[in-house]
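pasting input
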Amino acid sequence: MDRPIKTIQDKNSYLDLRKQERVTLLEILDRALEKGVVISGDIVISVADVDLVYLGLKVLLSSVETMEHLRGAPMAGAQEGPT
Amino acid sequence: MTMNRTIETDSQEAFIEEIEKVQDMLPKRIDANPKNVEKGLAKLVLTLVELIRKLLEKQAMRRIEGGSLSEEEIEHMGETLLKLENKMQELKEIFGLKDEELNLNLGPLGDLM
Amino acid sequence: MRIYAYGIIDFHNRLEEPIEGLEGKGIYNVSYRDIGVTVSELNEETKEITDTCILEHEKVVERLMIKFTVLPMRFLTVFNTQEDLLSMVGFYYEDFKNNLERLRNKVEFGIKVIWPTDTIKQRIINAWNKSNHSLSIPADSKAKSFLKEKFKQQQIEKEFQEEANRCIAVVDDYFNKIAVEKKLKKLQTENLLLNASYLVDKDRQNEFKQAFEQLKNAPSDLKFLFSGPWPCYNFITLTKKPASVDYFNTEDMLNRLLAQQGFAKERNAV
């Protein structure tokens, strides 16, 4: 989209609504704002990207114990024993 | 052959409050302006730092529970984690960020934390 | 003139009944092979749209649902030209066909549940205090006391999550067998235990409503919200991904993450 359209939350007119109307609006927002057929690419993180981020973190943060175990190095303070 | 759409609840106010909270947490479609850029970057960086900090805490607990650390190491670990938590609190205050704001929505995988 | 899209329908001819959309403009159907995109024109000058316009969007989709199977577009899907619109439909054609088939004669229902967070937490804390599960280290320093407290918090949080899982399973049990598909979101906020969407056959709507009546009448300290039938917003699955995205491009990924945090960089639509 070359000329983006802003959505603005019209707080004043929202507060004028009765409770039932507010619930209705919120229920619709809960669906139509982020769900349905979602086309634009810059807000949604597609599945492949999610895998990448998730996998990246997993590799980054694997337990120190496991890593040391795999390397065969003794953990500081551990008893002597088979690795 | 569709019923008319109905919305039925015995607690309108409670649900209004919660759904509004959820809506507030969604990424907003606002054009960037210089002020927002800083806050956006701070949020991103702090979110990742917070993630690592929480994971470190969990890992530390597991090791302490597992009994593989000396008392000195436990003490040192505790001091470090305490300092980290306090530092994070400071940073959150400096940037005016709340706990709920430091989260990332990973689409189908749900929230990061 | 920009084009505002409301939904994909399993119909490629002209719409017989007039339907009014945003800015009072009439809806028309743009056909692509054996399906159509229902749209209306948006004034060039339109720079802002209020969130309450979503009510008009929704009204159009629900009107279309009476006669057709509709894949509702996300609110505010706008195209600069008809060519852009058609190339989008062409790109997702198979996905659209599959979804139209899967969602034929189906509707969506929403169930939200609020639980008494404080009561639940208190219950868990009380149980913890009675038990002997605290971290077995001496509380003889600030650091160690911190660790003991942190451990307690983590265990309580863990139990809190598991209690949520149990509670959700009980609620879901009422609807599981009636629904064809479901999407369950746990604890979007501390109080909002469950935000569930169920895909239900049109013929089983009443059955579903009755299941909710049973749930509502069962003794519990939960609050419920029932809504529907809705267009199937939560059950659209698109398998195709825009080709121009490089998944291993860090800069691209960083831009996406920044966009998530409210810093939307201006970029061309894919």
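fyi The beta strands of chain A are 6-8.
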